[in-house]
Amino acid sequence: MTENLTKQEQKILLKIARLALEKKVRGQKLPLIDLETLPQRLREKGASFVTLTKKGSLRGCVGTLEAFQPLANDVQARAVAAALDDFRFPPVTPDELPEIKIEISRLTPPRPLEYETPEELLEKLRPGIDGVVLRDGMRRATFLPQVWEQLPEPEQFLNRLCYKMGASMNAWREKKLDVSIYRVEKFRE
Question: How far apart, in whole angstroms, are the C-alpha atoms of residue 178 and residue 95?
Answer without folding.
Answer: 42
